[in-house]
Specification:
The protein has 430 residues and is α+β, with helices and mostly antiparallel strands. The chain has 13 helices and 18 strands.
Length: 430
């Protein structure tokens, strides 16, 4: 087979986000994928890798590569062992397709990234994505028990296994999870599963800015209790008003368990909530509907860009979990100082926050360093998750490389010495 036989028409992201390719290739098997990578390395070509394209604005990278390798057609369930609660699937399978399939067996993959209808499991794993329920279930890194990966020279390796109890040597899965496709292309993923919860609810505690300290103290009290919330997500007033019609700081507390357990935890929250805070309770279908709306809120590179006067960007921040309150509060000052719309939310239990910015190019260039500096003062970090390429080329996408960056460079040089895969997309331009 020749590369020209893999050239197909697919839905491609807006080219303004970069990571484009002169030629688009759509392999549908591991052998085709291996052939593409081997041929590209031998010819000295550069490859940009994507699933369906929601994350083309994520990371550094180049505006155009020789090939855009789309895995959108390389999809499907390979093996599902219901009794062992594991599933093996191809990387182009979307999160929605996976969850809909598993629902028939009363099982689920415990992950809730943004845009489940378009986000592929391969892209989620490559970026180590997660959502608000990371507090209970962890990130993509915590679900994977095995991978098949195609190296840039076309060789195929297996990491981990297909059973949950796997203790053979180093956990090589973690080398590729979150590496942004710079070390190899994932061709197969094995995940551990969970049963679908019998019941689910969402409690929303809303508070004015002067009560934010009490809301923080409540979050500490809740995490010190015996309760097991699935999420503890704080929204700034702008996002709270958009999703809940409440112009206040809102703390999203979700519970997933049998109905009696959920009701017990709901009662605890109602009894211990801070004075003067407003409480709203959503049960089962209402909660599911809200989370679906929440997951579709942030912009991605498959959507139409807003008008020329305004630009949308998303930053992903990591911090100590309770520093999220100060980060989200700072979003109000950023909104006022730079005259832009700022929607922010962060996990008060896990410390991962997202800040969605909408404004002029000038305000965007000023706000991004402000956010990063504030996060770094709290011993945290910030990375650009979505932004047009012309702006990403002018700002520091990942921040300063960490002290252990030499390890990243050494691994990249060993695995991909010709910089074939996603060149310049990850930290430090590797």
């Amino acid at each position: 087979m020749e590369l020209k036989e893999l050239m197909n028409e697919i839905r491609v992201p807006n080219k303004a986000f970069g990571h484009n390719g002169v030629t688009v290739l759509t392999p549908t098997s591991e052998s085709e994928l291996s052939m593409v990578l081997r041929s590209a390395q031998e010819e000295g070509k550069k490859i940009s890798v994507m699933g369906r394209g929601t994350k083309q604005g994520y990371g550094g990278g180049m505006e155009e590569y020789d090939y855009l390798l789309s895995l959108a057609k390389y999809k499907g369930i390979v093996e599902h062992t219901v009794g062992d609660m594991t599933v093996t699937l191809k990387p182009g399978t979307t999160i929605a397709e996976l969850q809909n399939y598993l629902k028939e067996h009363n099982q689920m993959a415990a992950i809730d990234p943004a845009w489940p209808d378009d986000s592929t499991i391969g892209g989620v794993i490559a970026a180590n994505e997660s959502g608000p329920k990371r507090l209970m279930y962890g990130s993509a890194r915590d679900l994977v028990i095995g991978l098949r990966v195609v190296y840039p020279d076309g060789s195929v390796i297996r990491t981990g296994g297909k059973v949950v109890k796997n203790v053979a040597g180093y956990d090589m899965n973690k080398l590729f999870i979150g590496s942004m496709g710079t070390l190899g292309v994932i061709s197969e993923i094995t995940l551990k599963l969970r049963p679908v919860p019998k019941y689910e609810s969402l409690i929303i505690l809303s508070a004015t800015e002067d009560l934010l300290g009490k809301l923080r103290a409540f979050a500490v009290q809740l995490q010190d209790s015996m309760l097991e919330p699935a999420s503890l997500e704080l929204l700034n007033p702008t996002l709270s008003y958009k999703l809940l019609n409440k112009h206040a700081y809102s703390l999203l507390i979700s519970f997933e368990d049998v109905e009696n357990s959920v009701q017990y935890q709901e009662n605890w929250v109602e009894e211990h909530k801070p004075d003067s805070t407003e409480i709203t309770q959503l049960s089962l279908q209402e909660a599911k509907g809200f989370w679906a709306q929440f997951a579709a809120n942030a912009p991605n590179s498959l959507q139409e860009m807003c008008d020329d006067a305004e630009i949308e960007g998303v930053l992903k921040l990591g911090s100590k979990n309770l520093d999220v309150f100060e980060l989200i509060e700072e979003s109000r000052r950023i909104q006022e100082k730079y005259d832009m719309k700022v929607e922010a939310h962060g996990g008060a239990g896990h410390g991962v926050s997202h800040i969605i910015l909408k404004g002029s190019e000038t305000s965007m260039k000023q706000a991004i360093p402000h956010i990063r500096n504030f996060a770094e003062q709290k011993s945290g970090h910030a990375a650009i998750k979505h932004l047009p390429f012309n702006l990403r080329s002018e700002v520091n996408v990942w921040g300063e490389p960490p002290s252990y960056f030499f390890l990243f460079k050494g691994i990249k040089a060993k695995v991909d010495p010709h910089n074939t895969l996603n060149y310049k997309r990850f930290i430090g331009g590797i």
